[in-house]
Amino acid sequence: MTESRPVEECEFTDLITVTVSNGDESTSISGTFFGSQARIVKIQEHNIDATPEGHLLVFENTDAPGIVGAIGRVLGESNINIANMSLSRNQVGGLALSILNIDSAATPEVIENILAIEGIKVATSLEL
Q1: Within a domain: residue 58?
Q2: Fewer CB in 10 Å around end: N or C, the chain?
């Protein structure tokens, strides 16, 4: 583990970044606090603002119209309510990342239905 502080100005006074690697690939996630509220503010190169608590649905997709609606339809048909939605894209038509706080866990069947949506690259459910 290495602790470092940036020399240049940063948009956050306190920021922790965790990078994990298997030797071939690595993933990083950054978080901070807004008051007493923990927030996820970056995953890989995607700036995002998400609350890391409860049931989360995380997915990557091609940035295209209709994806968010299709996700909402799958969740609604499964009686899963969206409490909060954080969206991020780096460029129009590029890869987008979303984190949804949902009121109940997404079952493997729900994840399977989400992965069947055209343009969805990765989808996973987390419980924190």
Answers
A1: yes
A2: N
Q: What's the number of domains the chain is made of?
A: 1
pLDDT in tens, 42-67: 999 999 999 999 999 999 999 999 99
- Side-chain-side CA neighbours of residue 97 (13 Å): 15
pLDDT tens per residue, range 72-88: 999 999 999 999 999 99
Whole-number Å distance between alpha carbons of 34 and 14: 10
- Residues in CB range of 66: below 8 A, 6 or more apart: none
pTM exceeding 0.90? no
Alpha-carbon separation of residue 69 from 114, 117, 125 (angstroms): 11, 11, 18
Give the separation between CA 56 and CA 37, rounded to whole angstroms.
16
CATH of the domain at 119: 3.30.70.260
